[in-house]
Specification:
- The chain has nine helices and eight strands.
- The protein is of the alpha/beta class.
- The structure holds pyridoxal-5'-phosphate.
Length: 229
């Protein structure tokens, strides 16, 4: 089996899972956008996924993402990883959606970069659901001020929220908490409707809770080679 056939089979399986999860939740399949997380995989895989109809691609490292975005035009690029402030200006030149906005300095840098590039970037506030300050994400208490800052910053649009389910927690109850944060956010910012939740292992729980973006790597592309640091 060649790589194109492997990716086609994996994509069919993921689409089946999404279809069943939406049906079980009484949601329309069109309410959930599949983001293929291609980090560590070559641009040729992105091109193969594009031929299979995938339009949304997620990456987590600036240099790798910038190279692939240049190599495979026409995709919608999502930045899903922890983002250093000094990389934000670069990310703002190619990313359409940044899922990991969790602090004021990052908002300012993204706004500056997007303005300089003449672009508008969708910003999702990454929420730390267990409130552990050592992990990425803003605390729930930080959300109103951070949301107002994004909403008032040119070049960025407040699109919604994102979370990674804490390890060992029940993903459904984690994602239910994220949806509660989203509901609160929407009282002040009604257009911030996006909810990024769900990965290969827990997409069903995320769709049941109300996710609008699922971020799927392993189930589409296979197990990533171990990172060399
Ligand atoms: C890598 C990554 C994913 C994809 O995870 P899989 O378990 O491989 O599907 C999703 N979200 C973020 C933030 C990631 O870094």
């Amino acid at each position: 089996m060649n790589r194109a056939q492997e990716l086609a089979g994996n994509l069919t399986a993921v689409q089946d899972r999404l279809g069943r999860a939406c049906a079980a939740a009484g949601r329309l399949r069109a309410q959930v956008t599949l983001v293929a997380v291609t980090k560590t995989w070559p641009a040729t895989d992105v091109a193969l996924l594009a031929e299979l109809g995938v339009r949304h691609v997620g990456e987590s490292k600036d240099a790798e993402a910038a190279a692939k975005a240049a190599e495979v035009p026409g995709m919608t690029w999502h930045f899903v990883g922890r983002l250093q402030t000094n990389k934000a200006r670069s990310v703002a030149t190619y990313a359409d959606v940044v899922h990991s906005v969790d602090r004021a300095r990052l908002v300012r840098a993204l706004s500056e970069g997007a303005q300089r590039a003449g672009r508008r970037v969708d910003a999702l506030l990454q929420i730390s659901l267990d409130g552990d300050p050592a992990r990425a994400g803003a605390t729930v208490d930080d959300v109103p001020a951070l949301a107002d800052l994004v909403a008032g910053s040119p070049g960025v649009r407040l699109a919604g929220v994102m979370a990674v389910a804490p390890l060992r927690a029940d993903p459904r109850s984690s994602y239910d908490r994220l949806l509660a944060v989203s509901a609160d956010l929407r009282t002040a910012h009604p257009d911030a409707t996006a909810v990024s939740a769900g990965m290969s292992g827990d997409l069903e729980a995320a769709v049941a809770a109300g996710a609008t973006y699922v971020r799927i790597g392993t189930a589409l592309l296979g197990h990533r080679p171990p990172l060399v640091r």
